[in-house]
Fold:
Amino acid sequence: MATTSSLQLQPLHKISFSPKYPHLLRNSHFRPRLHYGSVVFPSSAIRASSALTREQESSSEKNQSVEVPEVFACPVCYEPLIRKGPPGLNLGAIYRSGFKCRKCDKSYSSKDIYLDLTVTAGLREYTEVKPAGTELFRSPLVSFLYERGWRQNFNRSGFPGRDEEFKMAQDYFQSAEGGLLVDVSCGSGLFSRKFAESGTYSGVIALDFSENMLRQCYEFIKRDGTLLTSNLALVRADVSRLPFPSGSVDAVHAGAALHCWPSPSNAIAEITRILRSGGVFVGTTFLRYTSSTPAILRPLRDRVFQSYNYLTEEEIEDVCKSCGLTNYSSKVQQSFIMFSAQKP
Structure:
């Protein structure tokens, strides 16, 4: 898979720092031959030209491997990572890059087709099992079914559907246009792909803890050639330990996710940390009950929904404000809620 991906995924840059096909120019038997016709070149000129070519290739390699501060941060200490490889947020550039935290001396790289930025990335002995709600979505079967019937059933609880939810979120994100958007708990990339296709943002990061959800997201991306070269990156990370420097993200989206988080308060505190001043957080989830739910049914719903963190309208607003977010607003339809809040 690594070989196929490295040939399929080409980075998209407005400025080219390297030859179009560096893998064909360096240490390759398939270098283009130079045909000079009947012109005779002095041997000294040929040697000078060859030396210049080697110098240019060497310079190109250095440019391609230049170390620059990165939008990603170490999930341990939150220091910006140093990237060695081609710049850009597209899948090809991320795949061919290595990342390192100089403070922790910990390295990160793409595993399969996503960049693993969890605290446990690269560990061989230690394993960690998350709560059942989290582990369920790491299942290959659930990841496969998510956009093949699973998510569509949410309309029974009042979810308007992908297109309408996307439009609603875009209305909230108007002030973040042209900025960096992180789609946390992105699942199979249902909305990540829509955000990237819209061209509204300078970059979109599809982030999830589930390895299989990210693989499924890549399978959908492969069907659209434009997404392969767009500024869309796949990242594995924990929502309670987001791998971004503080105040570096313009917009955060969490679609049908909050109820699956082990600690919604910790996750929203992390989202607040990474948002820039003026940054916007938009989320959707299932409500435990609404103001119109009869009082006699509320204790029953409390017991039935204990396996997930289904909150009320009041609880969501309360936790957002307690994490320092302002300008809270929401739209409710049956058990569906879309809410928005902003970092001052």
Q: What stands out?
A: Residues 1-68 have pLDDT under 50 and may be disordered. The chain has 13 helices and twelve strands. The longest strand covers residues 275-286.
